[in-house]
Design goal:
It contains 15 helices and 18 strands. With 479 residues, the chain is of the alpha+beta class. The two termini are 34 Å apart. 44% of the residues are buried.
Length: 479
C-alpha cells in the first residue's frame, strides 16, 4: 500500500528541542539545523510555519504534512554528527517515540542568511551501540504492556498485539475502539485491514504452483499471460522479478487509481487500466516496491490455477492454516467483526482539538483488496499462518526456504525474499511483512531462531502497529 514507502524515505524530521547548541559545530549549517529542530520538535504550528517561511520556503506550503510527520515521530533525539562543513551537516537521529533511527542531511546556501537548500532523512538500521538491552521474556512482556498503555493514552495506538513463543501466545491483548462512533471495543478476534501483508499469501500461492510444477520462476510473465497488453513487460519481466520487486512494474496508486477507485472490482480491471504501461527500468537492475507487480502475480495465479484468486487463497492458504477470520470481501459487504479504520487530519489553524481529529478512512479504500494488499485478518489468524508455514502445511521445506530467504537488498538494510521482508533485530533474524495506508497498519514477524512470532494490527495510521512490533523484537531474548 501507499505508506510502505515510509519505510524507505522519510521526507522531513527533526531533533530534540532541548538539545544544547554546544553539541553542534559552530557552522551556518549546524546553526540552521539547531533552530529548525527546535521549531519542529515544539509541535507548534505557528512557530514551525514561521521558521519554514523564513528559512525553507519550499516546505512551508505543506505545514499540515510537516505537523503530521511531527505527530508520527514525536520529534527526534539527536545522537551524533557524522560530517560537518560550513554549508552541510549530516548525522544520526532517533525518533522520540520509537526505536527508529535515521540519517539526516542538511545543506544551506553559502551566502547569508544561509537558507536551507536541502533537508532529508532516511531510515537506517539501528546503529551498533544504540540497541536497547535485551531482557527476559517476562520483562519484555511487562515493558510491552507499559508501552502499549502509554501509546493508548496518547491515542497513538488502537488495535491488537500478540507475541508467541514456539507457537504458544505469551502475550495477547486488544486496545482502543473498533468503532469510535458506536463505542465498540477492539477484541483479539477483531478483523483489521492489513494492507500489503496480503503479499505473503500471494507469494505462498505462487510458490505452491511452482512446487506443483505449473510455474517456473525464471519464466517471463508472458509465458502464462499470453494476451497481456504490453508485450515488452510480458516478455522481459520474470516471475522471480515480480516476487522480488525487481521487475520495474511500478505502482497503481495515484491519480488514475483515485479516479477509478470504486470501478476497480476485479484483478482484470486493474490490467485493463494499467496494462498498456511499459517497465520503469530494466527488469532485474534494481529494487523498487511494486504493488502492480503483485497485482499481476494474482492474475498469474488465476490463469495457472483456473480459479478466482480469492477462491484459490481461501482454499489453499487460509483453510489449511486454519485462518477462519481472514478474507478480502468487498467494502460494501457487511463484515460484523471488521474494524473501522481511522486516519488523522490536521485542520487549518491547528490547536489542541486538532490533535484529536480522526475520521474514518472510507473514502480512501479500494472496492476490494487485491493480491497486492487490502484484505483483513486478526492477530490470531496471523499466528496460525506463521505456524502453518513453519510446519510446512502450506509448502514443503525446500519451497518454504526458497520463499523466505532474502534475495535482494532493500533500502534500510534489509533484504526482500518472495513476498516476505527479511531483517534482523540485533542477532535475531526474522521474516515477515508489514502493511499500511491511511487508517490501517500491521506487521507480522516470524523469528525461527528463538521461536518467536510477533503480530500487531491497528486501525490507525502507520506506524501505529509497526512501532509496537519493533519495540518487542528489539528487547526479546535471543534464545
Amino acid at each position: 500500500m501507499k505508506l510502505q514507502r515510509l519505510a524507505i524515505t522519510l521526507l522531513t524530521a527533526s531533533l530534540l528541542g532541548s538539545t544544547p547548541q554546544s553539541q553542534f559545530p559552530d557552522t551556518p549549517a549546524a546553526h540552521q539545523f539547531a533552530a529548525w529542530l527546535e521549531a519542529f520538535n515544539s509541535g507548534d504550528r505557528a512557530k514551525l510555519l514561521e521558521f519554514l517561511q523564513k528559512n525553507n520556503p519550499s516546505r512551508a506550503g505543506d505545514i499540515d504534512g510537516e505537523l503530521g510527520f511531527r505527530r508520527m515521530t514525536g520529534g527526534f533525539e539527536f545522537q551524533k554528527v557524522e560530517q560537518s562543513t560550513a554549508s552541510k551537516l549530516t548525522g544520526i537521529v532517533k525518533e522520540r517515540d520509537s526505536d527508529t533511527f535515521a540519517r539526516f542531511s542538511l545543506e544551506v546556501e553559502a551566502a547569508e542568511p544561509h537558507r536551507i537548500k536541502e533537508l532529508d532523512l532516511r531510515q537506517i538500521p539501528m546503529p551498533p551501540g544504540f540497541a536497547p538491552a535485551r531482557v527476559s521474556q517476562d520483562a519484555t512482556v511487562a515493558a510491552l504492556r507499559a508501552e502499549l498503555d502509554k501509546r493508548v493514552a496518547a491515542d497513538s495506538f488502537a488495535g491488537a498485539a500478540l507475541v508467541a513463543k514456539n507457537g504458544k501466545p505469551v502475550f495477547q491483548a486488544a486496545y482502543g475502539l473498533a468503532d469510535r462512533e458506536k463505542k465498540i471495543p477492539n477484541q483479539l478476534d477483531t478483523q483489521f485491514r492489513i494492507g500489503s501483508m496480503n503479499k505473503m499469501f500471494t507469494a505462498v500461492s505462487v510458490l505452491q504452483l511452482v512446487q506443483a510444477g505449473k510455474i517456473k520462476l525464471t519464466d517471463p510473465l508472458g509465458t502464462y499471460l499470453t494476451d497481456y497488453p504490453n508485450k515488452e513487460l510480458a516478455s522481459k519481466v520474470t516471475v522471480h522479478q515480480l516476487l522480488t520487486h525487481t521487475g520495474g512494474t511500478g505502482d497503481f496508486f495515484g491519480p488514475e487509481f483515485d479516479k477509478h477507485r470504486l470501478e476497480l472490482r476485479t484483478l482484470q480491471d486493474y490490467v485493463k487500466l494499467y496494462g498498456q504501461r511499459g517497465v520503469e527500468f530494466e527488469p532485474g537492475s534494481k529494487w523498487a516496491y511494486s504493488n502492480y507487480g503483485f497485482l499481476l502475480l494474482g492474475v498469474l495465479v488465476e490463469k495457472v490455477s483456473g480459479q478466482n484468486y480469492y477462491d484459490y487463497v481461501a482454499e489453499h492458504v487460509y483453510k489449511p492454516a486454519g485462518m477462519t477470520l481472514t478474507s478480502s470481501l468487498a467494502e460494501d459487504q457487511a463484515v460484523p467483526g471488521r474494524s473501522v479504520g481511522y486516519t488523522h487530519i490536521e485542520p487549518p489553524g491547528g490547536g489542541a482539538a486538532a490533535s484529536e481529529a480522526w475520521r474514518p478512512n472510507t473514502d480512501t479504500l479500494p472496492y476490494r483488496g487485491t493480491s497486492a494488499g487490502g484484505g483483513y485478518s486478526t492477530v490470531e489468524d496471523l499466528l496460525r499462518f506463521a505456524t502453518a508455514l513453519q510446519q510446512h502445511k502450506l509448502l514443503d521445506a525446500k519451497h518454504t526456504e526458497l520463499l523466505t530467504t532474502g534475495k535482494v537488498d532493500t533500502p534500510g538494510g534489509g533484504k526482500y525474499a518472495y513476498g516476505f521482508g527479511v531483517r534482523s533485530f540485533g542477532d535475531i533474524p526474522c521474516f515477515g511483512h508489514g502493511g499500511g495506508a491511511p487508517g490501517m497498519n500491521g506487521d507480522l514477524e516470524i523469528c525461527p531462531g528463538p521461536g518467536y512470532v510477533v503480530a500487531v494490527l491497528s486501525n490507525l495510521d502507520p506506524p501505529a502497529a509497526q512501532r509496537v512490533s519493533d519495540f518487542v523484537l528489539n528487547r526479546l531474548p535471543e534464545k
